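Sat 14:20. Reprocessing the chain from the morning session after the first attempt stalled halfway. Input below, unchanged.
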Amino acid sequence: MGKHLLRDLDSLKRDLLTSGSMVEEAFSHSVEALVNRNMNLAEVVIEGDYLINQRENQIEEEALKILALNQPVAADLRFIISVLKVNNDLERIGDLAVNIAERAIYLSTNEPLEASLNFPRMAEAVRTMLRKSLDALIGMDPELARYVLTLDDEVDDLNREMYTILQNVMRENPEAIDRAVQTLSVSRYLERIADLSTNIAEDVVFMVEGELIRHKSIHHR
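Finished this time. Tokens:
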């Protein structure tokens, strides 16, 4: 590998990890805004989304430039392909954090639902998946990445539990339907972030080992 290619790949990895940190912070703030009914923090998430979008565009341009100028092969090529995929997944997680923040604003201006909803547990499970998928990326650790895949079932179960509870709320109290629908959307957004974290973990395995494990039966999707 030429020293210029090595330098460019290192820079690309640093930029991707910075993007990951920005997205993780946006997610954490969106959940905090939801749980604590904090409109100001929700606005911070929404206003900061353009920086995540800018970073995504920058990383994509750099990756494509490296492909064009260096024509990498084997592990280097896998790395760049994975960077492009992870980059896109991170931007989508950022968008979902904005969606949660928007729902947090709506819900903070309305009376809380009279229902036992365990959003902190669900959010913590999703946060763990996102954090560990990024740790696997930093450490190029396929075993940690595979561990992330095993965590997805808990989030799916919690999402189904939320759906059942909120369905009962809507049935018993028609006036709460709008709030319940908005709350159910948050649960769905959290479930999607878990899926995208799983995608990142799968891409780490591909990046390091060259093995495509998406759609295999290593975990339930």
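The radius of gyration is 19 Å.
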